[in-house]
Design a protein that fits this description.
It is a single chain. It contains nine helices and four strands. By secondary structure, the chain is of the alpha+beta class. Helices cover 55% and strands 9% of the residues. Helix 4 (83-97) runs parallel beside helix 7. Strand 3 (54-57) and strand 4 (60-63) form a beta hairpin. It has helices at 15-24, 41-46, 65-74, 83-97, 99-107, 111-139, 151-167, 176-186, 191-197, and strands at residues 3-8, 29-33, 54-57, 60-63. The structure holds glutathione (GSH). Glutathione (GSH) binds at residues 12-13, 39, 44, 50-53, 64-66.
Amino acid sequence: MDRKLTYFHLNGYAESIRYMLHYAGLEFQDIRLERASWPIKEIKDALPYGRLPVYEEGDRKLTQSLAIARYIASQTDLLPTDPWEQAVLDAAVLNVYELIPKLAAFITANGPEKKHQAKEEFLTGARDYYLSRFEEELKANNGFFGGKLTWADFVLTGIIECANLFLEAEIEKEYPTIDTLVKHIRSLSGVKEYIAARKPYFNYSL
Ligand SMILES: N[C@@H](CCC(=O)N[C@@H](CS)C(=O)NCC(=O)O)C(=O)O
């Protein structure tokens, strides 16, 4: 099957999807656009909602990173079959995604002073609020959101890595269960080799 994932050369919304595709051993074209050359009119106009990532299988196109991630999870062993368990994971990924607008406040802050202030606000506000709760949820469930490795754990890892890239921090370090989970995902077969071969990402927010 012809699979294609298009995003920027950035972890952002796509890294958890890339990790899952590599973990599952599903071959795909990993198309990466440069942020600096964006927008490219003919590409943007051809996107269903003008935004990336977009995932394609043959003629079929899927937008929205969480929908893509959930679909890829369903193609491997990362999505449970029980509706309640699925809903718990849906809630987990939506909770993780609540960090994104808080991070965006840092990315879009102008000038060193505002950046510094936005970083402090993120680290003492959203980071502590959400990560302390994720820590408790993981701890109560064998170190994973769903009691065993699922797509929600990949989504958390992807967003933490994105925050770390932009904030130049390691936001998970004070949360041992999260830290262990992130390390576990990075060490998975397929993911580990992908990370080793990956070109470094650039923090374009500075
Ligand atoms: N809710 C969407 C958000 C996608 C999104 O905001 N993508 C940004 C990149 S991080 C984008 O395509 N920006 C370029 C643009 O809007 O032209 C998702 O989760 O996929």
